[in-house]
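Nonribosomal peptide synthetase DhbF
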Amino acid sequence: MTPRDGGLPADPGLLPLTAAQLGVFHAQGLEPGNPAYNTVAVMEVRGPLDGELLRRAVRRSEAESGTFDVEFVERPDGVFQRPVAPGCSTWRELDLTGEPDPFAAARALVDADRSTALDLTKDALSAHVLMRVGADHHLWYQRSHHVLSDAFGSVLHSRRIATHYEALAAGTEPAGEPLDTLRSLLAEEADYRASEDHAADRRYWNGVFADRPETASLAPGVPTGAAPSALSASAELSPDELAALHAAGRAARAPWTVALLAAVAAYLHGMTGAEDLTLGVPVTARLGARSRNAPGMLSNTLPLRLAVRPAEGRTALVRQVARRLGELLTHQRYPYDELRRDLKLLGSGEQLYGVLVNIMPAGSETAFTGREAKLTTLSGGPVTDLNITCHPHPDGTGARVAFEANPHRYSPAELEVHRLRFTAFLTRFLAAPGDLPLARVDVLTGAERATVLAAGEGAGGVTPRTFPDLFEEQVRRAPRALAVLSPTGSLDYAGLNARANRLARALVARGAGPEDLVAVAVPRGIDALTAVVAVLKSGAAYLPVDTGYPRARLTAMLDDTRPLLVLTARGADDPTLAPGVPRLYVDDESAVAALPDTDPADADRRAPLTPAHPAYVIYTSGSTGRPKGVVVTHTGLAPLVRHQRDRLRLRPGSRVLQFASPSFDASVWELTTALLTGAAAVVAPSERLVPGPPLAGLVAELGVTCLLLAPSVLAALEADVLPEGTDLVVGAEACSPELVARWSSGRHMVNAYGPTESTVIATQTGPLSGRTVPPMGRPVPGTRVRLLDAALRPVPPGVPGEVYLSGDGLARGYLARPGTTAERFVADPFGPPGTRMYRTGDLARWTADGGLAYLGRADGQVKVRGFRIEPGEVEGVLAGAPGVGGAVVVARGTGPGARQLVAYVVPAAGAGTRPDPVAVRAHAGERLPAYMVPAAVTVLDAFPRTPGGKVDVRALPEPRFGTASAHRAPSTERERILHEVFAEVLGLERVGVDDSFFDLGGDSVTATRLAARAHRSGLALTARDIFGHKTIARLAEVARDTGPEAAAPRAESLVRLDADELDELEAQWGTTL
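Predicted structure tokens:
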């Protein structure tokens, strides 16, 4: 062993593997049945060819390098390769001219061999088959495992074989220098790994990917392992297109290959919207003279990170690609697997790139003098996502572009669509002026654009009408039909109309009318429903006020809206809340007794009422720390009602539960779906709406036939609570396949989607069945759905895009927030002049059948148990807590009821003590609705940050849920039962009987699940019990054995806190899935 062999094992018979070989060896070991690492090429040779001379030429070339004459050995101290006598590769000659179709027979042989996985310690890893398919017409099949050689080495080997063949045929010595050896290849790599260059390369790559950017791919999900076989397709670039690539490169002072890389990056950006993206770029990793002449496995594939800016043009992008590619080539020897190890990706299968772009150099064909030879690479190695390889024709007459796709991520149809779409995009990309913004170069073809825009059009033909007009039509149609029903009373349509008319006239007498706002603060029941109808009949819009909300929240809403009146009940009024606003009491008969009970007409109102006037204002979370009121008009009510009536089979006799909190627009759906279709609204106090036995009893008692519930509420119910035939609408958060399977059988279950900014529902599915992920459905009448990229271009089917909504149901905007309104409600470039569209912040994609699939949020907004929350609002409140210098709020967990809001805070500068997590949560609880109070507050010394200075959310530690300092195990039977229930519901192994349910991560939804689970175990608990007693020890003292008397909680057992918490159990409609 010589000094230059540094790093070789002491046994002179064993050699180490290159880093690239090790990567392939271990990858094959993880999937021993995967043939993806077989590299395969077929050379078609026309002209006389002597098979025996070719066999001898193969052996001579193999003997020169020694690369293909090795065996692999696994030992306790590692994996090695041992040089062996020449002749390891197999050789066969076949005459297929007698076959009916010689080429078909050859393809069958090739396909069988290439799809056979090889055992790296037992099988022959290199094979050659010479197949005669006609007179002086041969196919030379070459297959070697990637552990032996990369594409560069295989080309060296093939060329040297041709050189030896010509020498043997002429009886002369082969021309040129002999191939360098495997040992020299290993020595050069050993020198590199011991050099400062290796350390510098490592610093470079770890710096580029320090912030671990997300991987952009043309297929959903993150690319992982290689597929056993790849789908393939190809396209031809004409000489003119190749010339255009050369011209685009010259304009940026770069080679044409860089222009092609830029085109792929622009296409990936256009398809995904990602501006920070990476492409995989194969490199030879050969910078030394020895390695450039030695076959072997040394190649590397590295991630080329690019910033594609839609406002910049092609020339700027090509220049950036050239600069970044130059850096990559400078540092190309640092192994990709080592970078993944540095970034802690090994073992996860996660890749740093999706699409791989490879450009084969022209002249890589093997020349046989006097013969026409054409080389086709059938497989260049593993395909994890999508590989795009360009093969320039040797004569410069264009190029072939090969597309290979992982069939686990792409279907044949999807690959074909990408092939057609990319080649069409490439033409437009190269034809555009160099400075034309990339945002103006369409990725879609004209036909695709028309198709996706048409898919987003809801049915038309529904004339907008006002709520009073629609309601009074039902009164005239069936005045004696049941309109509203409660456990303590009922009203028919005529009676409800008369009461609402008198109250509406009282409101008009006090100045209420179109463009005015009346706050409604009436406890659940018939009076509350009457109050809302009355406000709408007066022409004013109503602002629902949930008196269970924290006072600071209510004060902010009332100060923001400055309502004309507060419509309330004497027993529910808080005179210190908005003390300067006049009151009108719904239970004050003296205020309405003398007023007519006839329908107010426009002549009776302060101004004529039109569908364009506001109907209600609903508050949503605000990103600036201040909630914002959404002003929704009557315009979208008629299309919504028509759609619900037709799809849900609503009719007189149907009974619609009024379950949602009045502060969320699900309550608008419940109101209109009942009273504007001729059905009956079922109302009840909060304690009868608790998921579990109370809600089940109410449904059975009052014959509820139609409900809108969030999946997290359904998860807390027994499957037999809702009878067969029930109309069940789910929304506000993602519904799991398990819930669909559980609840769809025997019921008419549909999934709906809609933000508050579009009248309740924007899209809705047909009936769901089986264990399936419910889609978003299709647009409701009068609604237009656009899926757009960052440049407001329609995205193709299957590609993520942001959801924009337009049409009749669109809200007017945000109350007294012109800037925010202008930011979120933008001009609709695809609709009639003057129309607007709302940017939802949701991501979705078109499915193959024209439906919509929800993908998540595009902005920082989060969804927790159906509630849409701006973390910035919560962060602003937490930052105001004593001793807190800053706060970060994120959502953690998955699944209905499991996703939680958690907070991280740092001490204020100069603070003498660290913030107390319990005190910080208490501070938030005094100022925010409970669903916005983080389940856990974790105190950090400082926030982890990315190199760019932003908080690194992915580096935040797991949240710390507080527990009692001393752990005490259960000691009684009741404590043991509750310990099991706590552990199951919270997903914890260690729970002390003195640990607070809420400090352990519990919240309002999990509290409901805990009560239901305890009930099944024989212990009856109420919401008041859990909120008031919190620990296993205290709950064991107050729990009651289940029995008939424990089926429903008594109203007097509920404390005021429950009004807030119970309302949160009602999923917020008005948001996304």
